[in-house]
Specification:
74% strand, elongated, eight-stranded antiparallel β-barrel, 9 strands, mainly beta
Length: 223
């Protein structure tokens, strides 16, 4: 009877033992997605003897491309590096001639696999990133048009949850995740037709917060 209990115990823990001892992975994730953000702008700008104060709350949609490299230090924990680049989407119903924008973000992430199977993972993650944003808008003075470009830098936080599933138990799989992304930007430079402006006395802050959706492919390697 005692021997039977030992056998049943070994049968119960064997799947856990196999899972815990599986080979570590290096993952490369490629994907893209969309975002929806609320933005809060708070500007105090001096031109000569005049000071202009501007405060506004608005919304924006984004599209982006993302690449991530992750290493599985434990079957429950992934640590990785993410690079994301994209742009805000302009309203097609408006005249957007002379407008342009782009953003780039680089950060470190940590994922916890709540479900950790050999060919399927469900994870929750946290990431910190640095961010840069460039926005170009047309300016008018009389009949002559200028272009003003603001360059922003800052950082942010991303909280996310997603799944990874490998196809036919192979090295290639699909990934999908959604998250909540926040960013705090400060104005770093401002140019008018390429001429740098003196930012002394300027105060310009931009905060964004929104939801991200990503989908893509993943390759895994056994180092």
């Amino acid at each position: 009877m005692q021997t039977m209990k030992h056998i049943l115990f070994l049968m119960a823990i064997l799947p856990l033992t196999v899972q815990a001892q599986r080979d570590k992975e290096l993952q490369i994730r490629l994907g893209g997605g969309l975002g929806a953000y609320a933005a809060i702008a708070d500007y105090s700008v001096q031109f000569g003897n005049d000071t202009y104060i501007y405060k506004d709350t608005s919304g924006a949609a984004t599209k982006h491309f993302q690449i991530g490299v992750y290493y599985e230090v434990h079957h429950r924990i992934n640590l990785g590096l993410d690079v994301r680049s994209g742009r805000y989407i302009y309203d097609p119903a408006q005249d957007n001639s002379g407008k342009d924008n782009k953003f780039n973000m680089v950060g470190l992430s940590a994922d916890f696999n709540a479900v950790s199977r050999e060919h399927f993972r469900w994870y929750v993650g946290l990431g910190l990133h640095s961010a840069r944003l460039s926005i170009t808008e047309p300016l008018f003075q009389g009949i002559e048009e200028y272009r003003g470009t603001s360059k922003w830098k800052g950082g942010g936080l991303l909280i996310r949850s997603g799944v990874v599933g490998y196809i036919a138990q192979g090295p290639i799989g699909l990934t999908f995740d959604f998250g909540f992304d926040t960013n705090q930007f400060n104005l770093n430079a401002y140019t008018i037709d390429g001429d740098s402006q003196n930012l002394a006395g300027w105060k310009a802050d931009l905060s964004t917060a929104g939801l991200l959706l990503n989908a893509g492919v993943v390759w895994r390697f056994k180092p």
